[in-house]
Amino acid sequence: MNGVKEAYDRASGEYARLYFHELDDKPLDRDLLRVFLSRLRAEGTVCDLGCGPGEIAAFLRSEGQRDLIGIDLSSGMIEEARRLQPDVRFETGDMLALHLVDNSIAGIAAFYAIVTLNVEELAKAFSEMYRVLKPGGLLLISFHTGNEVVHAPDFHAQDNPLDFYFFEPDTIKDLIVRAGLQIEDLLVRDPYPDKEYPSKRCYLFARK
């Protein structure tokens, strides 16, 4: 994961400039985040996992969720998130070994946070999500669909190569169920033209 951290650290400023307001152009994403908040059963902290510059946390806060934590592997991204939202708690952390205690999180929103993980790493990440969620806690995860690895030789013009993993929804469903979570809903959408990478996106709700 060191290469991933370094790539996002170096690209953090440009990434924040490009993507902090991306939800403005994605009405379905906003609606699904509202559904996520409405389905929370457990009280307590909501985690924006793989938060980047914190655009998901910003939206959740604007919808009334005050108890929030954003976690990202990249210290550069966390610096950007803290700059953009000084009232939200952001911390560096690895989703393969979260520093959160067991049964402590009411909900996890992980938007495109798994794109740099292979299958073995995904299994670890979902096990960690299960561990930290409270009983009845809710996961909303989004990811690029497909069956390929997209190689980016020069991520955000920072001379850092990265591989991005696209998975079929059934693969992710199986891994999530194996981790102990129960699938509630799944939705796939086409990409927004001229707004994002031209891949289909999947959104999946699962509960502990």
What do these coordinates show?
By secondary structure, the chain is α/β, with parallel strands linked by helices. It has one domain: Vaccinia Virus protein VP39 (Rossmann fold, 3-Layer(aba) Sandwich). The chain is built from six helices and nine strands. It has helices at residues 2-19, 27-39, 55-62, 75-84, 119-132, 169-178; strands at 45-49, 68-72, 89-92, 105-111, 133-144, 148-152, 162-166, 182-189, 201-207. The chain has a seven-stranded mixed beta sheet, sandwiched between helices. Strands 6-7 form a two-stranded antiparallel sheet. Strand 1 (45-49), helix 3 and strand 2 form a beta-alpha-beta unit. Helix 1 (2-19) runs parallel beside helix 4 and helix 5 (119-132) packs across helix 6 (169-178). The model has no long low-confidence stretch (mean pLDDT 94).
Strand content: 25-35%
Main pleated sheet? 7 strands, mixed
| Alpha-beta content class | alpha/beta
Broad CATH class: Alpha Beta
From N to C, what is the helix and strand string? Answer: HHEHEHEEHEEEHEE
Order the strands across the largest sheet as they lie in space: 3-2-1-4-5-9-8
Summarize the structure.
With 208 residues, this protein is of the alpha/beta class.
List keywords for this structure.
208 residues, Rossmann fold, alpha/beta, two-stranded antiparallel sheet, single chain
